[in-house]
Amino acid sequence: MERDQPEHQATETPSLIGDWSLNDKAILITGGTGSFGKAMVAAIVDRWRPRRLVIFSRDEMKQYEMEQRFPVVRYPFLRYFIGDVRSLQRLEMAMRDIDYVVHAAALKHVPIAEYNPFECIQTNIIGAENVVRAALHARVQRVIALSTDKAVSPINLYGASKLAAEKVFVAANNLSGPLPTRFGIVRYGNVLGSRGSVLPLFRRLITEGVQALPITDPRMTRFWITLPQGVAFVLGGLARMTGGEIFVPRIPSMRVVDLARVMAPHLPVTVVGIRPGEKLHEVLITDSEAPHTFVDRTFGHYVVEPSFRGWEPAAPEHGTALLDPVPEGFSYTSDHNDQWLGDAVLRRVLNEEQ
Predict the structure, then answer these.
(1) How far apart are CA 321 and CA 298, in angstroms?
(2) Which of 75, 89, 73, 70 is nearest to 32 (CA)?
(3) Which of 194, 212, 188 is closest to 302 using CA atoms?
(4) What fold, for 26-191+225-251+283-333?
(5) pLDDT at 288 over 70
(6) In sequence order, which residues have a C-beta less than 8 Å from that of residue 231 and are 6 or more positions away?
(7) Confidence bin at 89 (pLDDT 50/70/90)
(8) What does the longest C-alpha to C-alpha distance in the chain come to?
(9) Where are the domains of the chain?
């Protein structure tokens, strides 16, 4: 049965980056061999020719496999750099002569983080601090970090660690002093089709011939964004940040049970219950953040400004934001959203993700 909620349709909006360019720039991507990192590299090499593009990650096999897709022979500006964000020394070496850093490295699996809390903290919090220290030491111009809806009112360690990382990056602007380095954040929801998401799980189970798809709760809703949309939004944040902002896109919601129904209309679902540390609905902006949250009048996304600012904002490299305050008591939650992934759009997105 088709959902009767407002269906999200793709609309043409002005480009977040316009004529902003990464030509002749040096960029480093932490976690560069992950789903996001590969999509970011693909977007960059398709559009620009940077001076250097450093893919920083700790897994040599993933680096080897990624080099088969993006060979240095074809892209001589690429650098495959083995390293862990837990190592400040290695980060400082990797960031020499770098202009921009995209920090995507993280431990993201909720149950694994709960079972291995020391490791989660070392990567997600201490690693964020190391990125800040190395960027300041190398006089990097801009650093933008990826965050998640799970960092908002967190109920699990992964979310709590990403909340701490957000605080580290916002406060890092106080440390810049006369340095040009500025830090910003992009916060968004689940990435459709990324490793660890429910989409590849459902696809695998359907291929294996299961008799029913497992659903935690039929009421559960989630924010969803595609990898290309996420990459474009991060690049836009990098071009438009002034320091300390949290950029939040306006993205559609979807009930997980609807995803199962569209992917396998012939299969029933089995309700298995919400896992420990899991929410029924996700939140991207709380009512506590509303007093310093604004809507970008041109692009429609939200900007959460720092509640305190002890630094001079940098000039954006593309455009000047025209911001309107959100209403008092505003919050942005996946169950109260004016955009929903309807069946037709969901089928098209699923086809594009194959």
Answers:
(1) 8
(2) 70
(3) 188
(4) Rossmann fold (3.40.50)
(5) yes
(6) 36, 39, 40, 43
(7) very high
(8) 62
(9) 26-191+225-251+283-333
> 154-167 pLDDT, tens per residue?
999 999 999 999 99
Q: What is the pTM of this model?
A: 0.92
Tokens 């029913």 locate to 212
Q: What is the per-residue pLDDT across 112-124, written as a single tens digit (0 to 9) for each?
A: 999 999 999 999 9
3-state secondary structure of 186: strand
| Axis-axis angle for helices 256-263, 343-353 (nearest 10) | 70
Token reading at 58: 């700790």
Cα separation of 70 and 82, whole Å?
16
Q: Is 279 a catalytic residue?
A: no
How does pLDDT run across 5-19, given as a tens digit for each residue?
A: 444 443 334 578 888
Q: Transcribe 257-315 into DSSP letters.
A: HHHHHHH-TTS-EEE--PPTT--SS-EEE-TTTGGGEEEETTT--EEE--SS--SPPPP
Nearest-angstrom CA–CA distance, 228 and 47: 13
DSSP states of 81-140 as a string? Answer: EE--TT-HHHHHHHTTT-SEEEE------HHHHHH-HHHHHIIIIIHHHHHHHHHHHHT-
User: Among 38, 108, 150, 162, which one carries the catalytic annotation?
Assistant: 150
Q: For residue 247, what is the enclosing H or E element?
A: strand 246-248
